[in-house]
């Protein structure tokens, strides 16, 4: 039931940065699950109703997280108990900071990144190696939708290659 805004913000930073370190697309913070046993115990935390300094919690967290990341709260029931999941995307090009510090997970603890220079060095190395062009732009799309989204005639023209004769041949060449 920990709904303390600063603690949540620090975890957003720690889990985003740690997801990058562990080559994961996101990190997750869960309310309603007991830490030691992983039993579903439920939570009274309601992020949509929570406030921080007279602001909606999500807005306040977003305003104090830099760079801005698209974290999302999901609320639901599991085994007749309320459960909340906060999905936090991995940091992309710089460590995620909350207010005035970057955080990281070290084993099961949330710690300041500056206290772990080797982890910070590895994180920056990963940012330098990250290439936007290698990311997935959109998932689970049909070949027809791919062709609607791309200006494939211009692609083939810029390569001075003939446009393949049919959809399957175009998709194969693009692949």
Order of helices and strands: HEEEHEEEEEEHHHH
Net shape: globular
Query: How large is the count of helical segments?
Result: 6
Give the proportion of residues in helices. Answer: 25-40%
Cα end-to-end separation: 48 Å
Q: Could you tell me the number of beta strands?
A: 9
Outline the low-pLDDT stretches. none
Mean pLDDT: 93
Q: What is the CA-atom radius of gyration, in angstroms?
A: 21 Å
The largest pleated sheet is described as: 4 strands, antiparallel
Helix-strand makeup class: alpha+beta
Strand content: 15-25%
- Read across the widest sheet, the strand sequence of neighbours is 4-7-8-9
Give an account of the 3D structure:
- With 175 residues, this protein is of the alpha+beta class.
- Helix content is 34%, strand content 23%.
- It is built from 6 helices and 9 strands.
- The chain has helices at 5-21, 57-63, 117-129, 143-149, 152-158, 167-174, and strands at 26-31, 51-52, 55-56, 65-66, 72-78, 81-89, 97-98, 101-106, 109-112.
- A 4-stranded antiparallel β-sheet has the order 4-7-8-9. Strands 1-6-5 form a 3-stranded antiparallel β-sheet.
- The longest helix is centred in the N-terminal third of the chain and has 17 residues, at 5-21.
- The protein is globular.
